[in-house]
Amino acid sequence: DVKVTQSSRYLVKRTGEKVFLECVQDMDHENMFWYRQDPGLGLRLIYFSYDVKMKEKGDIPEGYSVSREKKERFSLILESASTNQTSMYLCASSTRTTGGNQPQHFGDGTRLSIL
Amino acid sequence: QKEVEQNSGPLSVPEGAIASLNCTYSDRVSQSFFWYRQYSGKSPELIMSIYSNGDKEDGRFTAQLNKASQYVSLLIRDSQPSDSATYLCAVNLGRGSTLGRLYFGRGTQLTVWP
Fold first, then answer.
1. What is the pLDDT along chain A (115 residues), one digit of tens a residue?
2. N or C: which end of chain A has fewer CB within 10 A?
3. Nearest chain B Cα to A56, which residue?
């Protein structure tokens, strides 16, 4: 089974802090994704990566950055945390295919509160 | 224009009934379609994948795809209270698809009452 592990289930930080969310997958997947999920807004893509050191902006990249130095690890960085970044953050991964897409597999999520 | 749309619900059905969840998408070249189940406070869990027109059955779940109508549905037969969750439709719309991106609907909340 695919295992996507997020470093924390719950995290509380203060406004202005630099926050790191870590995600590791054990299936040698090429693609990795960071989403946030808020009530009524669904899943929103922040950033994704299709290879080591490669990244693409999603729909809401402002205030976030990412890092992918190794294939199995994808980090989300909140440069200066703000209260409107309080949310559930979900990491996902998928394998690359030539035709169509394979499904994404999600980690358990990190519920982040910014005070 | 929303790219992946689901009937927002909530949908409420009695135990043992068939629950029908619907999803439409905007891009005719889409090739891959997925249904996820998400329990409250948990992360999405893949329950069905479908790539070709027609029906695909897995236990009590049936996914139906009609590419001409740009429509994918999920039927849950013999619904159980444990099926109560939010169901997310995901599609690989044309743009971004070669990089593995999926587009998600906002989900339909299903309640199965005993």
1. 769 999 999 999 999 999 999 999 999 999 999 999 999 889 999 999 999 999 999 999 999 999 999 999 999 999 999 999 999 999 999 998 766 678 999 999 999 999 9
2. N
3. B99
